[in-house]
Amino acid sequence: MDNQFENKEKMDMPGANNMGNKMNQGNTDKSKSDVPGDLTYDDKVIQKIIGTAVEKIDGLLTVDGGFFSNIAEKLVNTDNVTTGIDTEVGKKQVAVDMDVVVEYGRDIPEIADHIKQVIQEEVKKMTHLEVVEVNIHVADVKTKQQYQEDSETVQDKVTDAAQTTGHFASKQAEKAKDAVDRGTNTLQNKMEENQEPHVE
Predict the structure, then answer these.
(1) Of the CATH numbers 3.30.1330.90, 3.40.50.1110, 3.30.70.1350, 3.40.50.1100, which one belongs to the domain with range 43-142?
(2) What confidence tens digit (pLDDT) does each residue in 58-70 have?
(3) How far is Cα 40 from Cα 82, in angstroms, rounded to an integer?
(4) CA 137 to each of CA 63, 96, 97, 115, 173: distance values in angstroms, whole numbers, following the listed order
């Protein structure tokens, strides 16, 4: 610490200004800090980067989370992009295991290569970690139509049923209101007929 104060004192001295500027020019690279410490990533962070990165890969229908995860997804709509992705994160490297469902009729090795490329690029870009291994297990092959039908959740079905029931109830309420209005008008007309003076 004493050296820092000595340098500061020298820079404050007349004629030392040029020396101070030269010293500062050498430290203009702010990409790395001189402060010691570690930067680590939780597995979920890497899984989320991977899950988000592979969402738009053509021919990849979904990353499969296994039986229990699929049951949970059948019950409730979720946007959990980490499902079906396992990672092992070290200080400088990442290994990835994932189960996928691929669209029927597509070139599976080509899709797998694309998945690996996207994962490697995104993880490197965001974390500077090296992806050393990506193991892809194709858990199923489906047509887009099969996948969409299978993706409908119980929550979706309940919502659809509630909307249908709501529309039905609304129509029935309208019919009841119309019937009451007609009955009221008929009753009102009869009462008016009875109130008119009658000449006998």
Answers:
(1) 3.30.70.1350
(2) 999 888 754 434 4
(3) 18
(4) 10, 11, 8, 12, 54
Cα(183)–Cα(84) distance, integer angstroms: 62
The domain ranges of the chain are: 43-142, 148-189
Residues 23, 7: Cα–Cα separation, whole Å: 10
d(CA 178, CA 185): 10
Task: Give the pair of three-digit tokens for residue 33.
Answer: 């800090």
Q: Which residues of the chain have pLDDT under 70?
A: 1-31, 65-79, 152-169, 192-200
